[in-house]
Amino acid sequence: MNKYLLLLCFILVLISFVFFVLSVMKFTPLVLGIVFLFLSILLTVNTLNERNRFRGFGK
Prior knowledge:
Helix 1 runs antiparallel to helix 2. The protein is elongated and about 55 Å long. The model has no long low-confidence stretch (mean pLDDT 90). The protein has helices at residues 2-24, 30-50. It has two helices and no strands. Keywords: Membrane, Transmembrane, Transmembrane helix. The chain crosses the membrane at residues 5-24, 30-49.
């Protein structure tokens, strides 16, 4: 499941980057483009960081 979530995150970053470029060209609001790009990058970094976390020894 993590591979599919990671692939989905990277696709989301690409889509939000295109949306950001459209917002820089004044086709869409700039605030929405910045927010979508920030949230998609944040989700991707969080997904990459969560994969190899040490969760302690078993009880």
